[in-house]
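Please check this:
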Amino acid sequence: MQSAFPIGRRVTALCGLVLLAVATCRPASAQDDPDMAAQPVRPPTVIWCSVPSGGVLYVSGVTRLGTGSFMAARAYSGRFGRTVNARYGLHLGLEGNYCHQSAKQSTAATARATQIGRMAARNVAIVSVGVF
């Protein structure tokens, strides 16, 4: 018994339907969800981390985060805590807030330099954590 459509035409029709479905589907965005659209999008933020411990100040460099969200800053703070613990044998809590946020790179660099200057005046050793 012969089919009304040869195999080649069925495959072509199936591929056409798949391409049509892919072309008409779009990912969900915040505009589709009224609750998400009401929340403002936070601009990128600049962050740096520090923790004093036992006469030493462990400090990171100034880094720009892609988002200004609270969760991104907390994740970066936890990563800083894990790095300091692993490299220097400390036992910092990973839930601690060791990072400081700022809207501008210059403001963050000034605050970081001020803290380093204050701690150096007290004869506290300064350790740069570097990349983490």
The chain is about 45% helix and 20% strand. The longest strand covers residues 45-53. The helical segments are 7-24, 34-38, 70-88, 105-121.
